């Protein structure tokens, strides 16, 4: 069927699909970010070190160093619908094990299983959005999906306030709340399964069903622009998530003397900014393009935020605002950019490869920062011990900015190739 004449899903079907996948991502991101608010509780109640706390998010990323590319290939081979459903089931099992894991290896196993499902789920939903919305405000829809994911992160950071009674009971009650959000994620995946299956039979999706054979040689043929996007992705997320999702709340408590509720509130503003601004930036991308220069702008704000944070002479609100704008702008541009440089039938593999390398960065960064904090004896009585962490994140974010500049320069000299739907 000619794609220009293909019927689109109804407005109601698209709205239902969007809400369902949004709930899947919201619940997924809440569970991921549930470690940060309980970090200090884990130290005080279970005697965990920063290296152990860092490992809880590092082990989340570890399986995806190897498996998320396979997950992307599975999406290309079997379709997003199947992968989205079963990965949310795995995530729920992982969340349950984390909540019952007063014995550290059990908690590690839970985070490991959650990681196996969560990143492949994210890849599958990216492909699902392309199938439903490519050529139909794709960047805006992807940005809004990211916004709902950030809402999950925001709710996790705000949970010490709206679920204060659970935190007063200890770390475990807070993690059972996270398990409830994993159930919400599975509910969203189930609704998506139903509506996607119906529309696939009607032939209304923008991309045809996946090809029967995966050609692994295509991994070697991705263009230079794609690899620059990957470079930005790895550096950017290796800063944002290990800092804001693992160590920031504990750092704000110790280095700035804030309570758990106040530290969580300030940290949540980064995610709240992303919730509000990411769709606006997605709309901007759809309207004006200019992906590369927008990526340069967003990437520059990240090292600037750490420069201000490490100086100690400016308000926390300035560094938080810079982080928030960067966290809204970069993902809104980054993920749709892949579809500009990769063939449509290889999107699952391309997203899987990029997410795999992203998880290499997340794993290494979480481990390194935990080691730096322990080596510097970083705690409430010795806040100077966090200086190495801030310098590490600042230099790494500067690397992401340099990759964005390389992409911008390449874009100036190369003709644009946009991934188009298959016939």
Q: Your description of this structure?
A:
The structure is a single chain. With 423 residues, the chain is mainly α. The chain has a single domain (11-208, 218-413), classed as MFS general substrate transporter like domains (Growth Hormone, Chain: A), CATH 1.20.1250. It is 81% helix and 0% strand. The protein contains 15 helices and no strands. Helix 7 runs antiparallel to helix 11 (260-288) and helix 7 (138-162) packs antiparallel against helix 13. The model is unreliable at 208-214 and 416-423 (pLDDT under 50).
Topology record:
Elements: H1 11-33, H2 35-46, H3 50-61, H4 64-78, H5 80-100, H6 104-133, H7 138-162, H8 164-169, H9 171-202, H10 224-256, H11 260-288, H12 291-311, H13 316-341, H14 347-375, H15 387-413
**What is the element string, with H for helices and E for strands?**
HHHHHHHHHHHHHHH
Overall body shape = globular
Fraction of residues in helices? over 70%
The name of the CATH topology is Growth Hormone, Chain: A
Oligomer: single chain
Structural classification: mainly alpha
CATH superfamily: MFS general substrate transporter like domains
